[in-house]
Amino acid sequence: MENLQLELIIAAMINFWILFFIFKHFLWEKLAKAIEERRKFLQASVEADDIAKKKLEEAEKQVEELLNEARIKAAAIEKSADDLSKQNSYKIIEKAEKEASHILVSAKTEIEKDRLDMANSMKSKILDLSLKLNSKIFWKESSNKELFEKELEVLTK
User: Fold this and answer.
1) How far apart are CA 143 and CA 139, in angstroms?
2) Residue 148 near residue 130 (C-beta atoms within 8 A)
């Protein structure tokens, strides 16, 4: 049995070397090229992944910067809108105050005009009444008309 095993070992070694030379002769270069291409592809993939991560980080930074700028601009716009609305409200209030003062002045003028009209009307009525009384008392229509007018002027002032 010992011979048999030695022969089997020698046969296995010969088969191994034959297969090794066939493998090396026909497949080794193709397998080495495929392994090298795969290694290069994996390295390129890792490099592309690194580049993509860097670009993604840069894009995220840019997005954050743009968001910050947009927030700042929005705050500025909001502040200017508040200022503008305050200015508009002040203008509206000022305009309303001017209109109110104009209405007040025109009302005072109208009241003064009505008062003067009423005073003049009262003067003429008092004068007419006085003249009628005078004519009834003294039987003369025009007597003392000037005296009544002077007295009436003194009383109304």
Assistant:
1) 9
2) yes
- Mean pLDDT for all residues in the chain: 85
Q: How far apart are CA 106 and CA 96, in angstroms?
A: 15
Q: What is the mean pLDDT of residues 54-59?
A: 93
pLDDT bin (cut points 50, 70, 90) of residue 52 is very high
Cα separation of 107 and 29, whole Å? 112
Phi-psi region of 144 (alpha: psi -120 to 50; beta: other; left: phi over 0): left
Q: Report the pLDDT averaged over residues 21-34.
A: 89
149 burial type by CB count under 10 A (0-12 exposed, 13-18 middle, 19+ buried)? middle
Radius of gyration of the chain measured on its C-alpha atoms = 60
